[in-house]
Amino acid sequence: MRFKSILPHLRRLFVAAVLSAAPQFAAAQSSDIPSWLRAHVGESEGQIAPVVLRRARALYFEKVRAGEVRNPCYFAMDATRPNDLGHGRLGRRFYIICEARKSFRAIAAGHGGGRDLRGLANFENGRQCAKNFGNAMDSKLTTGGPYVTRETKTSFKGYYRAAGGQAALVRSFVQFDGEGDAANARPRAIGGHAAEVLRNLCLRKEPGSPHADREGYVPFGNLVIYAGGRSNGCTSWSPEDAGLVIPIMEKDPTTLYIYPESDDIVAVARAVKAGWLLAGAGLYWNAACLKQIHAPKFWSKETLGPILARYERDHPPPPPRPLPFCKR
Asked: How far apart are CA 156 and CA 175, in angstroms?
């Protein structure tokens, strides 16, 4: 009986401890959110979770007040939501919000695939839900936090077979600059791009091509679109959605807030281990993905960096080989 009498007190202490580990919510309250935007707030498909919107808005208006951003639109991403829903359907978890235009749009986006370092550490993510997050170099993991979009680099990747002949893959990459755990986004080459790549490259003789090298050769390969797959830690969109998103940020920097941050991950993992409901602890994670992954994990660069260095030391990459010539 005596133990039961102190249970409420223990619960309050636990919730307070968990909340102290989680980041403080942004100053913007739900009452500050325009009524038209509140209709898009929630945890259903195509909606944005309240904490994700609050933090994304706070970041955007902070950068606007500082004169760093003038773009009428800003972005947010909820990496706790599922990506691949199966049967060719993708989860919409990347948000384009233009409050001046009263515009809200949710689209799909990939998350970092991570890696399986045989015998050392396994931080690989599945296609549907991300369990592992981190900011170590070469980890191929997504890092949550505040970002500002920066310069766009567009480059020719090669040719591929298309209806009526061949087409050139010219892909744009938008560099992100991050803060906090995401502060090393630039050295990690973290940004946004279309989820398309050329595989099985070979060299084809085409001296008339504007992309030909000095000897008249161009790379040629098979086009692979991996919108339902995983990235190397960057934010990736389908080619169609990239054609919508990149022009918004291409010449006019804006903010991107990616949820969850490391403190969110740690707090949720503690709550799951203790068996408490997240809502009661003031925490958020997509319920379907939490059921699949059981508990998330953040791999800091301080923890994962030495493991990656050891793995690369024990498994040096093979020397680079020139592309073969196409057989036909």
From this structure: 17
Q: At what angle do helices 262-274 and 2-21 cross, to 10 degrees?
A: 160
What does the DSSP 8-state code read for residue 238? -
Classify burial at 79, counting beta carbons within 10 Å of its beta carbon; exposed 0-12, middle 13-18, buried 19 or more.
Answer: buried
Number of structural domains found in the chain:
1
Domain extent for 262: 2-150+181-188+251-314
Per residue in 285-309, pLDDT (tens digit) is: 999 999 999 999 999 999 999 999 9
Specify if 61 maps to a domain. yes
Whole-model pTM? 0.88
CA distance 109 to 121: 26
Please give the pLDDT value at position 288: 96
Residue at token pair 């803060």: 179
End-to-end CA distance of the chain: 82
Which pLDDT band, with edges at 50, 70 and 90, does 5 fall under?
Answer: very low
Tokens for 17, please give them: 């401890």
Which structure tokens are listed for 122?
Answer: 């396994």
